[in-house]
Amino acid sequence: MPSRIEALIPTPPPERIDALQNLILRIVDCLDADEECDALIAEADALAGSQGYDSITFSNLNSWTSERDFAVLAAMGPPPGIPDLTVQEVAECIGVIEAADEPRSSFCLGILERTFPNVPICDIIYWPKAAASSDDLAAEIVRLANEPLPTLPAP
Questions:
Q1: Cβ-based neighbour number of residue 82 at 10 Å
Q2: How far is CA 95 from CA 54, 55, 88, 90, in A?
Q3: Which of 75, 89, 92, 146 could form a disulfide with 16 if both were Cys (CB 3.0 to 4.6 A apart)?
Q4: What is the SS3 assignment for the chain?
């Protein structure tokens, strides 16, 4: 039986992946030609579950992934936030992220970022203060998430 994290990572239909890849290639070409791409971007964003994609998303694409991997990630839809995520499940997400198995790793990173919006997830995982296991990093993420947010003094 798969874990809850594994069960949350979708396998999108190949047709949706292909449609998104075709749109992404058109968008990248459009941006490279310095043309108006808003309608194509809106179409890709809608097909991907309204994740808030904009021209920056596509102009920076080749610096971190391929068009195909991004199409798979986009076809997966928005990662969920999970309010009752356990330390063990956070560690499992970190394990997937550290395995660098795209697009699964980006999807799990999205789960953590949506679940813990006030915690610097990337800093903790990619630039830890000291060498740490996935379990230690997970405990730190959950600890920071449970800390009260600082309040600003009244003007």
A1: 18
A2: 29, 31, 10, 9
A3: 75
A4: CCCHHHHHCCCCCHHHHHHHHHHHHHHHHHHHCCCCCHHHHHHHHHHCCCCCCCHHHHHCHHHCCCHHHHHHHHHCCCCCCCCCCCHHHHHHHHHHHHHCCCCHHHHHHHHHHHHCCCCCHHHHHHCCCCCCCHHHHHHHHHHHHHCCCCCCCCC
Per-residue pLDDT of the chain (155 residues; tens, 9 = 90+): 779 999 999 999 999 999 999 999 999 999 999 999 999 999 999 999 988 999 998 988 878 888 999 999 999 999 999 999 999 999 999 999 999 888 999 999 999 999 999 999 999 999 988 888 999 999 999 999 988 766 767 77
- Residue 64 CB contacts under 8 Å (≥ 6 apart), including other chains: none
